[in-house]
Specification:
The protein is α/β, with parallel strands linked by helices. Helix content is 30%, strand content 26%. It is globular and about 75 Å long. The two termini are 32 Å apart.
Length: 387
């Protein structure tokens, strides 16, 4: 997450329809292995920025909001891509200095890529884009299909998203030019240098059924090397009105916390438990037992960081973590993005999703006596990754 002087936002362009995919709905709502492209793009970029604006086609705004909750602002997009980006720029908080522009269609781009783009802009670049070297020979043709010229592919790259910009540069670029499929092209037109960094093969743009099939092969290849684990944690609310509430790595002001050996962060603890189970290296109790005074009062963030080290030492990388918080309070939606970012940061940038629910008055959480969380973690064996 950016420091306050470099507050960042992401625009997810998702106002296009999926006609070339053969879908009669927005492309962003097309599912890949049961998860929409929008959710995949949103989950990946969330830990890298402070706020997110999503552009939706007219009439689909509520469907988008149902997918992302309160962690993003969904607005109606324009007719052209540049129209949508301009509308999103106007909706971003005034103190944002760095803007990432991402296509929902590049749903498999990783959090790590978004962070590298963001950090390059924070370090002084005006515009930064991910790119891959051209592999095929590229020829220029005329309207009749005859070759005009064979281009030198050593100087050619294929450009991807997310693309990162200093906010003032991006605003100027859009104000000075008409529509473009690539925001960096508008910046180039101002005479401002655009820096390229290495992109990702899996950050392909999903436009056709063939692209969707290719994206599925990336997931299948990864899934064959995955191990899963489940973790659960629960704590009762403290009778001490001054006990601080720590949840998902965040301090919740004006909320009474829970009793526990450490800070009682049920979301962090459930994630640790799930990761230990997935890596087959014990559980929360055997790794951070109450008999060990070292962990008395330890923060959830500290336990997550140490869990990451132990899982890595055991030979595993983290593919994905999902945690659901169960309770009547606090209300998670307003701070979901911050929670995702904090948990992801503690796990060295791993992809994390956070959801919340109540139990309609049933059980100790429904009766307001406490709070619980359940987490699922997917890890992969580092020794066989990529095989």
């Amino acid at each position: 997450m950016s420091q306050s002087s470099n507050k960042s936002a992401a625009i997810i362009a998702a106002a296009g329809m999926g006609h070339r995919l053969g879908a009669q709905l927005p492309k962003a709502l097309v599912q890949l292995h049961g998860i929409t492209l929008l959710e995949r793009a949103f989950t990946a970029v969330s830990p890298a920025v402070d706020e997110i604006i999503i552009t939706a086609p007219p009439g689909f705004e509520d469907q988008y909001r149902a997918l992302v909750g309160d962690s993003a602002t969904v607005i109606t997009g324009g007719i052209l891509r540049s129209d949508s980006v301009n509308l999103a720029l106007a909706a971003i908080s005034k103190d944002v200095k760095i803007v990432l522009v991402h296509d929902a269609a590049r749903a498999l781009a990783t959090t790590e890529l978004a962070i590298r783009i963001r950090d390059a802009v924070a370090n002084g670049e005006s515009a930064v884009i991910p790119a891959l070297a051209a592999i095929d020979t590229i020829k220029e043709i005329d309207r009749e299909g005859y070759v005009r010229n064979t281009l030198d592919r050593s100087a050619l790259v294929a450009v991807q998203t997310p693309q990162g910009f200093a906010r003032d540069v991006l605003v100027r670029a859009h104000a000075a030019s008409e529509d473009a499929t690539d925001d960096a092209a508008l910046v180039e037109a101002l005479g401002i240098k655009v820096k390229t960094i290495l992109g990702e093969t899996n950050a392909l743009k999903i436009t056709t059924p063939e692209d969707l099939a290719m994206a599925a092969t990336f997931l299948i290849g990864n899934e064959s090397n995955l191990q899963s684990g489940v973790g659960v944690d629960a704590h009762a609310f403290s009778v001490d009105p001054k006990r601080p509430m720590w949840l998902a790595g965040l301090l919740w002001e004006n909320e009474v916390g829970v009793d526990g050996h450490s800070d009682g962060d049920v979301a962090a603890h459930a994630i640790c438990d799930a990761l230990f189970a997935a890596a087959n290296i014990g559980d929360l109790g055997s790794n951070f037992g109450t008999s060990d005074s070292k962990y008395a009062g330890a923060s959830g963030e500290t336990l997550l960081s140490e869990t990451f080290e132990r899982v890595t030492k055991a030979g595993f990388g983290i593919a994905n973590v999902s945690v659901q918080i169960i309770g009547n309070r606090p209300k998670i939606g307003v701070r979901r993005s911050a929670a995702i970012a904090k948990l992801s940061q503690a796990l060295n940038g791993a992809t994390v999703s956070v959801s919340a629910t109540s139990t309609d008055g049933l059980g100790f959480t429904g009766e307001g006596k406490g709070i619980s969380a359940i987490a699922i973690a997917l890890v992969y064996n580092l020794s066989t990754a990529g095989n």
